[in-house]
Amino acid sequence: MKTRAMKFVKRLFAAALFAPVVAMAAGAALHLDKAPVSTDPAALQNGAKVFINYCLNCHSASFVRYNRLKDIGLSEDLIKDNLLFTADKIGEQMKIAMTRDNGKAWFGAAPPDLTLVARARSSEFGSGADWLYTYLRQFYRDPNRPTGWNNKVFENVGMPHVLWELQGEQVGHVEEKDDGHGGKIKEVSLELVKPGVQSAEEYDKTVADLVSFLVWMGEPMAEKRKSIGVIVLIFLAGLFVLSYALKKNYWKDIH
Asked: What's the average pLDDT block by block, 10 residues per block, for the chain (255 residues)?
């Protein structure tokens, strides 16, 4: 009886152990482009401008205050004159007037807060920055969707393509292929049919700056944290050398 119970427990453990692997193997692989994330102040400032002009209408960033933008090189006057659209004081949070109920009624789901989106979208396929960079460049026209737009990365997304004037309009050519397991997978290839005000290279740079800003919002102190980490490691290395020298000096008379 004990032997049967032990075998059952072992099988249950093995099933639990390999279940995530089987689940990942069954899902379609998501191909993400590597995001050229930058910490350059000019890139972050441009990303902040794009975010506030195009994203902050529907998406809040309620964990960040406007005065935090001084950390990327913007003066208080520049913030007040050019970026303070949804608040009266520079110390207020980046919130929006739209309620969750309105967002759900208009888009089918309430637009999420974007403060931590670059961290939340990380997966086995790539970083959250990679996901955002790919997602914002793969919208295409779809007359069957309520907004008139669809996305290759996020199929049937409720969000419209707010940057379409910059990128232009893409159409998706859908093709079904065998998945190798007796089923079908849908592949969408994109074609730019109506150019935007920016070239493809300029638009990629705009998206890269926006993604860089979203990454910065998720952890504004990331660069400082990394520099402190280097200092701590150097300190610990020096402490190890001194401790080792003290140990040798202490034990030399005993040996």
From this structure: 53 48 51 95 96 93 94 94 90 89 82 93 93 97 94 92 96 79 79 96 98 95 82 91 86 74
Hey, what are 206's tokens?
């705009």
> Are the C-beta atoms of residues 66 and 90 closer than 8 Å to each other?
yes
| Cα–Cα nearest to 63, from 28, 101, 94 | 94
The tokens for 226 are 């990394």
Compute how many other C-beta atoms are within 10 angstroms of the C-beta atom of residue 110: 18
Given this model, what pLDDT does residue 22 score? 40
Which tokens is 35 given? Answer: 């995001």
- Residue 18 identity (one-letter amino acid): F
Alpha-carbon torsion 106, 108, 113, 117, what sign?
Answer: negative
- Which phi and psi (to 5°) does residue 139 adopt? -80, 150
Q: What is the pLDDT of residues 26-45, one digit of tens each?
A: 446 788 999 999 999 999 99
Q: What angle do CA 143, 145, 148 make, to 5 degrees?
A: 55
- Looking at every residue in the chain, the average pLDDT score rounds to 86
The C-alpha angle 237, 241, 247, rounded to 5 degrees, equals 140
pTM for this model (two decimals)? 0.78
* Interatomic CA distance for residues 120 and 127, integer angstroms: 9
What pLDDT is attached to residue 106? 80
What is the distance between the alpha carbons of residues 110 and 106, in angstroms, rounded to a whole number? 8
Region of 74 please: left (phi>0), alpha (psi -120 to 50) or beta.
beta
